[in-house]
Specification:
This protein is mainly alpha-helical. It has one domain: dinb family like domain (Four Helix Bundle (Hemerythrin (Met), subunit A), Up-down Bundle). Helix 1 packs parallel to helix 6, helix 3 packs parallel to helix 5 and helix 3 runs antiparallel to helix 6. The radius of gyration is 16 Å and the shape is globular.
Length: 168
């Protein structure tokens, strides 16, 4: 497992699709960098009132959010996420039984799958969503930038509390 992820600054000048995807990839790489190098104990340690809010749990959550939006919504694949009505936090719970390396590998693989889905589509492509709505690819990418960046902030705080690491 690589201990850090190569982060490439998004271009200042490019077409909209390139910039949106570059910002999402930048945040995806930051997620991995924030998690890499932690001990198994620290990766699964909760420092917040929620026992689910761990570094491993957040990576698992982000993996399954990516799977939902890109595989299920945009690509029409069946939803295979570990959450259900009975286990609404299943994507956090499964991380407890996985090594940090496995959680990172699963996240990286899902991001690669998400990139492949987006590569087949245009930003203005529209798909049916939840039966009575529609969503375009642009909205999904923007939502994932927001979702990933928000959780990078959580990871930043948790990592600093765990071992004092800041920045990146």
């Amino acid at each position: 497992m690589t201990t850090t992820e190569t982060r490439i600054d998004p271009p200042y000048v490019a077409d909209e699709s390139t910039q949106l995807n570059a910002f999402l990839d930048y945040h995806r790489a930051t997620v991995v960098t924030k998690a890499a190098g932690l001990s198994e104990e620290d990766a699964h340690r909760s420092l917040l009132p929620s026992e689910l809010m761990t570094v491993a749990g957040l990576l698992s959550h982000l993996r399954w959010v990516e799977a939902y939006w890109f595989d299920v919504v945009l690509d029409g694949q069946p939803d295979r996420a570990p959450y259900s009505k009975e286990h609404p936090d299943g994507e956090f719970e499964v991380a407890a039984d996985l090594s940090l390396a496995q959680v990172i590998d699963d996240y990286r693989a899902q991001c690669a799958s998400s990139r492949a889905t987006v590569a087949k589509l245009a930003l203005d492509d529209i798909v049916d969503f939840r039966g009575d709505r529609q969503v375009n690819v642009r909205w999904v990418i923007l939502h994932m930038i927001e979702e990933t960046a928000r959780h990078v902030g959580h990871l930043d705080l948790i990592r600093e509390q765990l071992d004092g690491a800041t920045g990146e």
